[in-house]
Design goal:
globular, about 200 residues, 9 helices, mainly alpha, Rna Polymerase Sigma Factor, Chain: A
Length: about 200
């Protein structure tokens, strides 16, 4: 069944179609949530909230080809709302890299592979140390694969600003990874290119 038919059946209340859509997208949603909150259990809870928002908003996604960007926008907004609500309290703890491996789907997804790789674990830990705007740009552009124009719209920034910030974000990520022991002498990636 193609994306358009799946979405239409979900709008009509078909529970099996909804379950199929959730299974299809849970890796992406959990990955986005984890990228923002940095804690596995919290990411799972947040993913549930994202799927509730998704279900309530299905009628607003009229173009199936834009569904991935639309879903990413809903997930991002839910994550930002969640972070605003918890801003008054500090994060509970750092999550050891070896606990970041089993976020979602029963079948391997690209996101599962991303968490399994030791180099990618280092990149993810480095992401948590970036400035908020740089982390968002890396997540949206390099991890979720959104075009710069779409990111500019989401962040309400001019396209030129997003392009320059994207470059700076990758440089900041590379420096952070190098500072964590990555690079030629360490186990992690040499530069920002390894983040994607």
């Amino acid at each position: 069944m193609d994306q358009a038919e799946l979405l239409e059946r979900c709008r009509e209340g078909d529970e099996l179609a909804w379950e199929m859509l959730v299974r299809q997208q849970q890796g992406r949603v959990c990955s986005i949530a984890y990228s923002y909150v940095g804690e596995q259990d919290e990411a799972f809870d947040l993913a549930q909230d994202i799927f509730v928002r998704l279900y309530k908003s299905l009628d607003t996604c009229t173009d199936p080809e834009k569904f991935p960007a639309w879903l990413t926008r809903i997930a991002r907004n839910a994550c930002i709302d969640h972070l605003r609500r918890r801003k008054a309290r500090p994060p509970r703890q750092d999550i050891p890299a070896d606990e970041m491996t089993n976020l979602a789907a029963e079948t391997p997804t690209p996101e599962d592979e991303w968490f399994r790789s030791s180099r990618q674990k280092m990149v993810h830990r480095a992401l948590q140390q970036l400035s908020e705007i740089n982390r968002e740009i890396i997540v949206l552009k390099d991890i979720q694969g959104l075009p710069l124009e779409e990111i500019a719209g989401m962040l309400d920034l001019p396209l030129g600003t997003v392009k320059s910030r994207s470059s700076r974000a990758r440089i900041e990520l590379a420096r952070t990874i190098t500072g964590m022991g990555g690079g030629p002498d360490g186990p992690g990636p040499v530069g920002a290119e390894a983040a994607v």
